[in-house]
Structure formats: structure tokens, C-alpha cells
Specification:
Blueprint: E1 3-6, H1 17-25, H2 39-44, H3 48-55, H4 70-77, E2 82-87, H5 98-112, E3 121-123, E4 132-137, E5 146-152, H6 162-167, E6 170-173, H7 176-188
Parallel strand pairs: 1-2, 1-4, 2-3, 4-5, 5-6
The structure holds magnesium ion.
The site of magnesium ion has 7 residues, from loops.
Length: 189
């Protein structure tokens, strides 16, 4: 059975990062016009100390919906692949409070995707050290070590050209239906 590394943030769910920052700053953030991965740090830089003090007890996954079709596709393929959810939980600004984030991530996955065993969760920041048959992530660096590399479109990677992706043998997907199509093809080979 082929192994899949499945990223959590911006692949399974967008969480409620943006909404929390908007609440803190009392303004709207348009991710269409943002290309930086670390937009949280950028927008909150002038109020760094207050922001991290305010956010440290918040749950980024409370009321956060799964991305469209994520659950349905995962339910259909779960017994056909060996799927691991690989996700980072460390917040470098408040590193010793990261255990809250770890707990929130764990509880979210248990509640929203109960058919994936917690034994299949890998909490790490060093995803590029892991080898998998198929890797699905929204960050190119995390796809290293994958025989098949699938990049999930997000605000920070939308400007990476097809040429650049081709060079690295990376396939871009925009939604979960496209993931299912690629994986179904894999099963027929
Ligand atoms: Mg991600």
C-alpha cells in the first residue's frame, strides 16, 4: 500500500488564523493580494508583544471548516492508501506555548476526521526529512522526499510558475477533486 504524507494547514483546513488576526487588528485581510507565507508576522509586527500575548490561548481550529470535499475524498481513499497527517505545531514566537496548538490540532483531527487513527499523526516541523510515496503540501520545501509531489494551491504559492513546478516534478492541484483524480490514477497503475 502506498504511503501518503498529508499536510494539515491549508490542505485539510485553513484554520481561523486570518479571522483571529482580523479580530485583533480590527481590519479585513485580503489573502488574494498577499504572497508571503508569514503574513501573520507581517501584519502583526508593529504590535508583536501584545499580539502574541493575546493569541497564545486562542484555538486556531475552533469552528474552522474542512476544505471542500476533503472529508469525502479521504473517506473514499482511506483504505486504499496508508495515509499519515504530518503537521507542524510550533509557534516560534511563543515556542513554550506550542503545546496548546498541538492539543488543538489533535482534537480537531480526532473530531473532524475520526476514521484516521491518531497513530497516523506525525507532529513535526522537519517534514523534508521524511520519505513518502506521495506528498501533499502547500509548501514546496515540504515536498522533498516524495516520489510524487503534489502542491496544494494557497495564497503564498499561487505565483510559482508551471515551468518552475515542472522542473521540480511537482503537480499543482487547486482542490480535493483534483487530488482524488491523481490518486485514483495511481491505483490503476
Ligand atoms: Mg500547510
Amino acid at each position: 500500500m502506498k504511503t501518503i504524507m498529508l499536510d494539515m494547514d491549508n490542505v485539510i483546513t485553513d484554520g481561523s488564523f486570518k479571522e483571529l488576526i482580523e479580530e485583533f487588528l480590527n481590519t479585513e485581510i485580503n489573502l488574494e493580494q498577499t504572497t508571503e507565507y508569514d503574513y501573520v508576522q507581517k501584519y502583526t509586527a508593529p504590535f508583536k508583544k501584545e499580539f502574541w500575548e493575546w493569541i497564545k490561548d486562542k484555538n486556531f481550529y475552533e469552528n474552522a471548516p474542512l476544505l471542500d470535499n476533503c472529508k469525502e475524498v479521504l473517506e473514499r481513499i482511506n483504505d486504499k492508501f496508508n495515509i499519515f497527517i504530518v503537521t507542524s505545531y510550533l509557534w516560534k514566537e511563543t515556542i513554550d506555548l506550542s503545546s496548546n496548538n498541538l492539543k488543538n490540532k489533535y482534537e480537531y483531527l480526532r473530531k473532524e476526521l475520526p476514521f484516521i487513527s491518531p497513530e497516523k499523526y506525525i507532529f513535526t516541523t522537519n517534514k523534508n526529512l521524511l520519505n513518502f510515496d506521495i506528498k501533499i503540501d502547500d509548501r514546496i520545501d515540504n515536498l522533498k522526499g516524495g516520489k510524487i509531489k503534489i502542491l496544494f494551491t494557497a495564497w503564498h504559492n499561487k505565483n510559482i510558475s508551471d515551468e518552475e513546478l515542472q522542473k521540480e516534478n511537482i503537480i499543482r492541484v487547486n482542490n480535493w477533486q483534483e487530488i482524488e483524480k491523481i490518486l485514483t490514477k495511481e491505483l490503476n497503475i
